[in-house]
Amino acid sequence: MSALRAVGLGRTYGRGAARVEALVDANLQVAPGELVVVRGRSGSGKTTLLHLLGGLERPTAGRVFVGDAELTAASEDEVLALRRGRLGYVFQSFGLIPSLSAAENVEVPLRLLEVEPQERDARVAAALDAVGLARHARQRPSELSGGQQQRVGIARALVAEPAVLLADEPTGQLDSQNAAVVMDLLAELVRERRVAAVVTTHDPLMAERADRVLTLHSGRLSGDADGGAASGRPPGGGVTGRD
């Protein structure tokens, strides 16, 4: 069973002469432990796709399933619960709260889920250790490099043990060296933790670490949209999977 599935997904903005089809009839399945990269120029619909997959926007057409739960049929409260418990996000701009330490930023999703303090502390420590930042737990974002801030963002996205990870241009603000570190870390954690991941990027090096690479052009998604989720192929053996 796929961890994430979209069927006939579409999003239109505006009306009449101002009408824009940001996404048209997109179909996608992602299996646990699979890393799918979506490439496309600015304005091609990549961010719109992630917003629809993550329940941040409602589609004009189509359906989204996270496991067996239909996100597009859920109430606002149900969508919020799904986003908190089963979906993780990594943002291009890091999205960290400047006044909080690295550990406190990672802790935010667990506070929203009302996890007990002792378990919360243990999970935050483990998440920071997984991204190589255990010794930076008390530092604020301004005291960290861009690459370190994005690793905090990854720890925060994964600390609640989501089934699905969505990352919007996660290396877009980084130099090539830090980008490579973040890309390797993302790919490793996705497969190790069996998370279904969709990553949008302009970076061709990210595609080298993917199980599948899809392309968005003028709101239309092309490539092997079903992949291992439909065929039973294990993640890691896609179009551009790593050795």
List the helices and strands and how they pair.
Blueprint (H helix, E strand, L loop, with lengths): L3 E10 L6 E11 L4 E5 L6 H8 L7 E6 L2 E2 L5 H11 E4 L11 H11 L4 H14 L15 H13 L5 E5 L7 H18 L2 E6 L2 H4 L4 E6 L2 E3 L4 H5 L12
Parallel strand pairs: 3-8, 3-9, 6-7, 7-8
Antiparallel strand pairs: 1-2, 1-4, 4-5, 9-10
Notable traits:
single chain, 243 residues, alpha/beta, six-stranded mixed β-sheet, four-stranded antiparallel β-sheet, 10 strands, disordered C terminus
Biggest sheet record: 6 strands, mixed
Order of helices and strands: EEEHEEHEHHHEHEHEEH
Unreliable stretches, pLDDT < 50, 5 or more residues? 237-243
- Count of separate structural domains: 1
CATH class: Alpha Beta
The end-to-end distance, rounded to whole angstroms, is 25 Å
Give the amount of beta strand, in percent: 15-25%
Structural class: alpha/beta
Average pLDDT across residues? 88
**Percent range of helical residues:** 25-40%
**Overall spatial form:** globular
- Summed up, the helix count is 8
Neighbour order of strands in the largest sheet = 6-7-8-3-9-10
CATH superfamily: P-loop containing nucleotide triphosphate hydrolases
What is the CATH topology descriptor? Rossmann fold
Taking all Cα atoms into account, the compactness measure Rg is 17 Å
